[in-house]
What we know:
The protein is an alpha/beta fold. The longest helix has 20 residues. The strands form 3 sheets. Strands 1, 4, 5, 6, 7, 8, 9 and 10 form an 8-stranded mixed sheet that branches. It has a two-stranded antiparallel ribbon with strand order 2-3. It is built from 6 helices and 12 strands. The relative contact order is 0.18.
Amino acid sequence: MEIINFAEHKSLVSRYMLELRSVDIQRDKMRFRQNLVRIGEIMAYEISKRLNYNAVDVTTPLGTAQCDTVADQVVLATILRAGVPFHQGFLNYFDDAQNAFVSAYRKYKPHSDVFDIHIEYIACPRITGKTVIIADPMLATGSSMELAYQALLTKGKPAHIHVASVIASQQAIDLVQKHFPEENTTVWVGAIDPSLNAHSYIVPGLGDAGDLAYGDKE
Length: 218
């Protein structure tokens, strides 16, 4: 399994990560969402280099040109709700892709930091033989990603899986390596942070991406 960590190479992703993490800049919700979109677009472009292509002839006003077009069938999947702007970045580039959505959330036990992950909803096309990109901006424990993947497998077996995240904990990366197929999974991440706190939030992380993008929830 290949792990591509954008933090290991200087690029514009570094600037967008700075703005996402900054307690001052991230207060601007529109800017926060836009930075998630931008990182999604950059990752989509990088993933596009790994796909298969067909050559096609295109008629121009002055003749014929040979161009390449993506041969793989791409399905963009995301975990609601924080994944929506991140997902949009991928959709801006893979604009004719099929789409899948999974609702996953933490259900805490009363007066406790202990929680279970619940899947309540999935909307997904058949994915057998297709390239599936699962976009979730924050991989904390990795449990939501694992359960979302299992839910997607009820719709078929993909040819290749790209797991895309803005920030992941090392624990989540370890879990993905353990539970996703080694031979056809690629992980793309903006940064890998070392630890989780008592509430299972990534440290240093950026806080709650869903709340920062869309406001607090009860």
